[in-house]
Amino acid sequence: MEKFFDRIKIAALIFFVCAGFGIFYWQIKPVQSEQVANWGMADAKEINVNSKVGGRVIQILAAEGDAVRQGQLLARIDSEFQEPQQRQAQAAIAAQVAQLQQLIISSNEAEGTLNAALQNAQAQLKRAETSMRLAEKNELRFRELLNQSAIAEQTYDTYKMQLEDSQAAYNAALANVESARVALLKNEENRAAQDASRQQIESLKSQLESVNLNIKETEILAPFDGIITKKYVEEGALISSSVPLFSIQDPKNNWVDFKIKETEINNYKVGEKFDLTGRNGTLKISGTVESIRRKADFATQKATSERGDTDIIAFNVKIRTDSENVWPGMRFTIDEK
Predict the structure, then answer these.
(1) Is 33 buried (19+), middle (13-18) or exposed (0-12) by CB count in 10 A?
(2) Which of 40, 43, 91, 269 supports an S-S bond with 258, CB 3.0-4.6 Å?
(3) pLDDT per residue over 172-187, tens digit each?
(4) Comparing C-alpha atoms, which of 57, 47, 80, 64 is closest to residue 220?
């Protein structure tokens, strides 16, 4: 009887071992099948829509899953921080413009007067110089006559005094010309002040443009046609600049990345078209090889003695699909040609 039970135990043990191997083979068979096929993962153009200014989110106008158009308003941020800066910049520009206008009026009025004064001083200097040259000739001629005792000394003194008076008049006229020139130079300083005022106005305008741009940035717009895949903030949230508010995905800009073994990489060329099948077996799409990465990603198979202790390396092949049926994370295999 004991031998009978021992045989039953051995038979049961053999049965369970065989069943275990069968289950193990059944579990790994799909994995092996997937390893044989070239399975790739889909990806798509997806970006974060960020805020360029800080503030409180006062309105959210899009939800996850919404289809949006380029330029569509997605959210608003309170502009309370920018509006006082805008008013200050506008007031500063107005004040600077008024100052510039006053400088221009003052300069234009002074310029005409000063030019006339300079011209008058130059004319007086010319007359004074002519009188002085004549007085010099007379003084020289009468001095020679005095040395010859041809005239009385009193007569000579008259012409000597005329020369001294004409020299004094000439020096005074020369001083008047210099004074008029200095006044014109000061008026040129007024023009320099005008240039500085204009530069200040341009600087203030740049500041105002920056503030206006910040106010414009309080309206968050969709950068392209797409689908809202993630909403990161809620109404009332206080955010800082560069904080993402949404993720938006372009449903017509997608691709599938395949890790192709180095032993098969020569079968793929940039520009070549392939048919792809999704994991459900019914989704069929086509795509074109957009790029083949020249840098290896990883070893798809580790070294074994059967392969001479050599790893098999994979390279990324990017097949562009641009199909609305392709979602990031989907798996596809390349159909045999």
Answers:
(1) exposed
(2) 40
(3) 888 888 888 887 777 6
(4) 57
Q: What is the pTM of this model?
A: 0.52
Nearest C-alpha neighbor of 86 from the set 201, 202, 200, 210: 210
Of the candidates 316, 323, 317, which has an alpha carbon nearest to the alpha carbon of residue 250? Answer: 323
- Region class of 242: left (phi > 0), else alpha (psi between -120 and 50), else beta: left
Half-sphere exposure of 318 (CA within 13 A, CB side): 13
Q: Are 227 and 248 in contact (CB under 8 A)?
A: yes
How does pLDDT run across 66-86, given as a tens digit for each residue?
999 999 999 998 877 667 777
DSSP 71: T
- In angstroms, the CA 203 to CA 197 distance is 10
- Cβ atoms within 10 Å of 335's Cβ, excluding its own: 13
Map tokens 């309206």 to a residue. Answer: 219
Evaluated on CA atoms 56, 59, 65, 71, the torsion sign reads negative
- Alpha-helical (H) ranges within the chain are 2-36, 83-147, 153-216
